[in-house]
């Protein structure tokens, strides 16, 4: 959590037993306990800040992307060509994707996950909602904020008491990516309500990159398998050629030895004849 006094603000995620078992967040999420959680983000998170390119590496690592160079190159190409379907900073994308992954990992472990998105357009950035639940980042409330200041903290109070923030708040489901849309508009009577497909554009974009990463890994494995087959084939062909050469050499040697033997036999036979003049038949000794 942040504090108005920067000297008192802790940096990073604090993890310790018994709530967290694991050396880091990734190891914890590999086998988390089936624990109910409430998790969410603000609509614009870090969009007011400067771009943090290094955050792409964090997203790639957190999502388990192995072909990072190729995937990040694809991201930059999409960025230059205007093919990224949203206008969020990398830090905001990092916050959305990590919240999404954490939510679904806890859901898979058997815990009930209450996902939310704080959509107050008047205060849409990171931690600005803490004014309602922690009393920091204070600002002057308008008529909408006054209503929200009653409803929003009650979600957390009820969750702490009952592990359910509200009777109409449905736990996260795999196919729906459902979440509580949190905002109040007194004029059109809009109140917090359930919606589906949490941060759909960002989540789907990175899901597609994860699928691309899997295809690239598959192509790499296929190429490696083909190289192995080619190497094996070449080795077999070379061995076959060597065997053929050896057989041919053996045949040639055998033929030459046979010819030499025949010549020697004929020579010895000729030497055993004595030819006398006037005789028609040689005398054999």
UniProtKB/TrEMBL annotation:
Pfam (any one): COesterase
Keyword Repressor: no
Keywords annotated in UniProt: Membrane, Transmembrane, Transmembrane helix
Keyword Transport: no
Domain named Carboxylesterase type B: residues: 89-201
Transmembrane region(s): 241-262
PANTHER family xrefs: CARBOXYLESTERASE TYPE B DOMAIN-CONTAINING PROTEIN, PROTEIN CBG05369
Descriptive protein name: Carboxylesterase type B domain-containing protein
Lineage: Eukaryota, Metazoa, Ecdysozoa, Nematoda, Chromadorea
């Amino acid at each position: 959590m942040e504090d108005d006094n920067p000297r008192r603000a802790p940096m990073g995620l604090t993890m310790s037993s018994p709530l967290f078992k694991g050396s880091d967040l990734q190891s914890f999420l590999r086998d988390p306990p089936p624990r109910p959680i409430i998790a969410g983000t603000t609509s614009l998170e870090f969009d007011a800040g400067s771009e943090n390119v290094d955050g792409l590496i964090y997203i790639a690592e957190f999502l388990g992307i192995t072909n990072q160079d190729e995937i990040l190159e694809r991201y930059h190409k999409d960025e230059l060509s205007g093919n990224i379907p949203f206008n969020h900073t990398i830090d905001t994308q990092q916050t959305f994707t990590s919240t999404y992954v954490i939510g679904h990992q806890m859901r898979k472990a058997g815990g009930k996950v209450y996902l939310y998105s704080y959509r107050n357009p008047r205060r849409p950035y990171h931690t600005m909602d803490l004014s309602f639940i922690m009393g920091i980042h204070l600002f002057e409330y308008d008529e909408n904020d006054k209503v929200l200041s009653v409803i929003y903290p009650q979600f957390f109070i009820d969750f702490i008491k009952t592990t359910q923030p509200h009777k109409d708040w449905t736990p996260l489901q795999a196919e729906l990516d459902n979440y509580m849309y949190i905002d109040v508009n007194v004029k059109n009577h809009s109140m917090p309500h359930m919606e589906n497909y949490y941060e759909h554009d960002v989540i789907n974009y990175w899901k597609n990159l994860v699928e691309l990463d899997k295809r690239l890994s598959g192509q790499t494995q296929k190429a490696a398998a083909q190289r192995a087959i080619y190497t094996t084939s070449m080795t077999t062909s070379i061995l076959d050629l060597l065997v053929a050469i050896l057989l041919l050499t053996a045949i040639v040697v055998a033929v030459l030895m046979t010819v030499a033997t025949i010549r020697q036999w004929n020579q010895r036979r000729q030497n055993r004849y004595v030819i006398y003049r006037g005789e028609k038949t040689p005398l054999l000794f």
